[in-house]
């Protein structure tokens, strides 16, 4: 009888890296990029012992109900709000994610998006390509400065700290808000000052969102929060779209209640709110903050290592490098 474990890879990922799974398991690969229906996910997981998934794959109790063999899900991404971790823990499924390997790349991008919004870089390029540059003028496409400005970071985990460290090179004043205050030595290293949320909103010249998504922070940045911000401020979101009320943001950007925004994530991605698409003062990118070639390869490598180890194979058998639900692992 065939005793090899079976794993599902939910979409095409670097073949040379994912191919390492074949040394240990039977691999069922999906040729199609993009979202699967809940039924397709449940069907794919049914005969599997493990899965390598992405933010395109929402998985909870219903999707694993007919997957009695399932023991491990390796998420390619540090954020895992696509997974219902408590349901998976209850089902005995070890969940892993990919922290650390994407921190610096994502912080680079957050900074770039903030700069693009503040200095109107994509708007300026569109203006030039549209043939509107007929004469140079002193008042063309004026933006706002980063140097000397106050950067507000909401969510001061690894990526938030990476952005803070970059900001001190730009001589920005850094303030942050987080569920819990950082130890004093980390605050010193980041040159960041802890403030409450209202103070962060009202004092930031540039506000960057880098907090994990959970229902508790759904539409945290709504019309009321936006009204507390300076009209000259910019808002950058590299976290999850659901943290921002996009209609309220579009309204604030259209009415001059907020100067500009940089968005890499959207509530209904890959669909983008048409009210945002209609605005000039928002820089829109398609969820690519972790997307350098080296980092995306490192993420898939870590996810593959996690899956192999979580299923009891390889040098780290039973000890996946970055588990999310250590309790599920302990229950083994
Ligand atoms: C990934 C991300 O591209 O890591 C995250 O949380 O949002 C991105 O880096 C995405 O999760 C891929 O699944």
Which oligomerization state do the chains in this entry correspond to? Answer: single chain
Q: Please tell me the CATH architecture of the largest domain by its name.
A: 3-Layer(aba) Sandwich
Strand arrangement across the biggest beta sheet: 8-7-6-9-10-11-12
The ligands bound in this entry are:
2-keto-D-gluconic acid
Helix content: 25-40%
- Can you tell me the CATH class of the largest domain? Alpha Beta
- CATH names the topology of the largest domain as Rossmann fold
Rough outline: elongated
Structural class: alpha/beta
Uncertain residue segments = none
Count of individual helical segments: 14
Task: Report Rg.
Answer: 22 Å
Give the strand tally.
12
| Largest sheet geometry | 7 strands, parallel
Within CATH, the superfamily of the largest domain carries the name NAD(P)-binding Rossmann-like Domain
The average pLDDT score comes to 97
H/E element string?
Answer: EHEHEHEHEHHEHEHEHEHEHEHEHH
Q: How many structural domains in the coordinates?
A: 2
Concise description?
This is D-glycerate dehydrogenase. The protein is an alpha/beta fold and 332 residues long. Helix content is 35%, strand content 14%.
Give your account of this protein's structure.
The structure is a single chain. The chain has 332 residues and is of the alpha/beta class. 35% of the residues lie in helices and 14% in strands. It is built from 14 helices and twelve strands. It has helices at residues 15-18, 38-45, 61-64, 85-90, 103-118, 121-129, 158-169, 184-190, 197-203, 223-228, 246-255, 274-277, 293-310, 326-330; strands at 6-9, 26-29, 50-53, 72-75, 94-96, 150-154, 173-177, 192-194, 206-209, 234-237, 260-263, 282-284. It has a seven-stranded parallel sheet, sandwiched between helices. Helix 5 crosses helix 7. The chain is elongated and about 75 Å long. The two termini are 25 Å apart. 2-keto-D-gluconic acid binds at residues 54-55, 76-79, 102, 290. Residues 111-289 form the D-isomer specific 2-hydroxyacid dehydrogenase NAD-binding domain. Pfam families: 2-Hacid_dh (PF00389), 2-Hacid_dh_C (PF02826).
């Amino acid at each position: 009888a065939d005793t090899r474990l079976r794993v599902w890879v939910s979409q095409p990922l670097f073949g040379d890296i994912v191919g390492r799974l074949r040394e240990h398991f039977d691999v069922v690969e999906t040729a199609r990029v993009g979202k699967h229906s809940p039924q397709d996910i449940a069907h794919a997981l049914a005969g599997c012992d493990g899965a390598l998934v992405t933010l395109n794959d929402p998985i909870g109790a219903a999707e694993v109900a007919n997957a009695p063999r399932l023991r491990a899900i390796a998420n390619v991404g540090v954020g895992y709000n696509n997974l219902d971790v408590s349901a998976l823990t209850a089902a005995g499924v070890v969940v892993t994610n990919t922290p650390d390997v994407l921190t610096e790349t994502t912080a680079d991008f957050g900074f770039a998006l903030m700069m693009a919004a503040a200095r109107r870089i994509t708007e300026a390029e569109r203006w030039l390509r549209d043939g509107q540059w007929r004469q140079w003028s002193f008042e063309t496409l004026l933006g706002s400065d980063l140097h000397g400005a106050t950067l507000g970071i909401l969510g001061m985990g690894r990526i938030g700290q990476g952005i803070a460290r970059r900001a001190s090179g730009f001589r920005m004043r850094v303030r942050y808000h987080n569920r819990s205050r950082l130890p004093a030595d980390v605050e010193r290293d980041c040159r960041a000052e802890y403030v409450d949320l209202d103070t962060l909103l009202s004092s930031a010249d540039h506000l960057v969102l880098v907090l994990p998504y959970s229902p508790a922070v759904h539409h945290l940045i709504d019309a009321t929060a936006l009204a507390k911000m300076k009209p000259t401020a910019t808002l950058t979101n590299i976290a999850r779209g659901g943290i921002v009320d996009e209609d309220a943001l579009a309204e604030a950007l259209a009415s001059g209640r907020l100067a500009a925004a940089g968005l890499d994530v959207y509530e209904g991605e890959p669909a983008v709110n048409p009210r945002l698409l209609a605005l000039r003062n928002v820089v829109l990118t398609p969820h690519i903050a972790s997307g350098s070639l080296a980092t995306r390869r490192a993420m898939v490598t870590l996810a593959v290592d996690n899956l192999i180890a979580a299923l009891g194979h390889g040098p780290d058998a039973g000890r996946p490098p970055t588990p999310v639900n250590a309790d599920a692992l302990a229950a083994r």
